[in-house]
């Protein structure tokens, strides 16, 4: 078995990514993984010894830790309402820059065309790769999602995708569309990691893509999540008018910027005691949430609310529960 993945799925994904996300790749350029978590671990192996990797602050702490566990130094650069602050990139040689340009995690901004062009120019000048995490690129609700950066420079940009948001995380299926220089290192790292992702899962995914079922499923899901997000946002505006919803209409989570007097750590503890799964922190202070950056442009408490598994009839009650938690965690 080819540890890179079955040719059937790699070819199907190359065609799908081309029409859905503007990715320019081929069967040979696609590596199948068990999800973005493994994709980041493999990239850490492939990039070890090539220099540090720039990461967004705030960003996804797990991915940053995976790079560090692979022996790769990370350098944090602020992300604001418009994504990574490209002007703040360091004037030094680095191996790569890890970005979430279509829907910055967790703040929800979209990297503008000007910043995209500037990022590619900076990467070219420093001979660095761009690691594009397109974790929920299929879910933009107010307009078409911007195309992947990879399409502008396939030999400089590594595109990461996953079926976790569109199908199910339990499938453990992801992919990397890589420049040719990484074919060997990534295939070697994948072979040593597990020898290959489940062939049955790969063939099922290839059949879904080839039959058109995957595209139809994504379209239906997009409509459903758009309605749910709109419903949740309206409910939160009524229950928590002081909170600001950050980012564009996209993805499967809503990020709320809370009033500065909210003790978000207390809020999270009480939420978990009630069996409510929430995530958040203080931008500029909390580890993984741009810690050590008190002057971050969005410094202050934020809360992440996932709505992918929130039943539609429960949205109003969820907003009321959240308002109760927020008000109970405000300083006296």
From TrEMBL:
Out of the domains of life, which is the source?
A: Bacteria
Looking at the record, the residues that make up the Aminotransferase class I/classII large domain are: 2-265
- Classification via Pfam families: Aminotran_1_2
Q: Which GO terms describe its molecular function?
A: pyridoxal phosphate binding
User: What is the name of this protein?
Assistant: Transcriptional regulator family protein
- Write down the species: Patulibacter medicamentivorans
Classification from the root reads: Bacteria, Bacillati, Actinomycetota, Thermoleophilia, Solirubrobacterales
């Amino acid at each position: 078995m080819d540890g890179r993945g079955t040719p059937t799925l790699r070819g199907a994904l190359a065609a799908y990514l081309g029409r859905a996300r503007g990715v320019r790749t081929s069967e040979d350029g696609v590596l199948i993984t068990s999800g973005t978590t493994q994709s980041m671990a493999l990239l850490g192996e492939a990039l070890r010894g090539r220099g540090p990797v720039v990461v967004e602050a705030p960003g996804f702490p797990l991915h940053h830790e995976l790079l560090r566990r692979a022996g790769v130094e990370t350098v944090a650069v602020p992300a604001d309402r418009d994504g990574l602050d490209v002007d703040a990139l360091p004037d030094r040689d680095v191996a790569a820059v890890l970005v979430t340009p279509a829907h910055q995690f967790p703040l929800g901004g979209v990297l503008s065309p000007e910043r995209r062009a500037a990022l590619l120019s900076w990467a070219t000048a420093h001979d660095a790769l761009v690691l594009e995490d397109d974790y929920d690129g299929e879910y933009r609700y107010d307009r078409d999602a911007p195309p992947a950066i990879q399409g502008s420079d396939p030999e400089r940009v590594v595109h990461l995708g996953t079926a976790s948001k569109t199908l199910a995380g339990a499938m453990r299926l992801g992919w990397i569309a890589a420049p040719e220089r990484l074919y060997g290192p990534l295939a070697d790292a994948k072979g040593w990691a597990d020898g290959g992702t489940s062939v049955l899962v790969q063939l099922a995914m290839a059949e879904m893509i080839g039959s058109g079922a995957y595209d139809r499923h994504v379209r239906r899901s997009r409509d459903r999540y758009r309605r749910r997000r709109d419903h949740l946002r309206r409910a939160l505006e009524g229950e928590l008018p002081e909170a600001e919803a950050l980012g564009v209409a996209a993805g499967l989570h809503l990020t709320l910027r809370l009033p500065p007097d909210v003790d978000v750590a207390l809020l999270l503890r009480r939420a978990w005691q009630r069996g409510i799964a929430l995530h958040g922190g203080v931008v500029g202070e909390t580890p993984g949430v741009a810690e050590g950056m008190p002057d971050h442009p969005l410094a202050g408490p934020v809360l992440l609310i996932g709505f992918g598994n929130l039943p539609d009839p429960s949205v109003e009650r969820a907003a009321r529960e959240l308002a109760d938690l927020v008000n109970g965690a405000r300083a006296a």
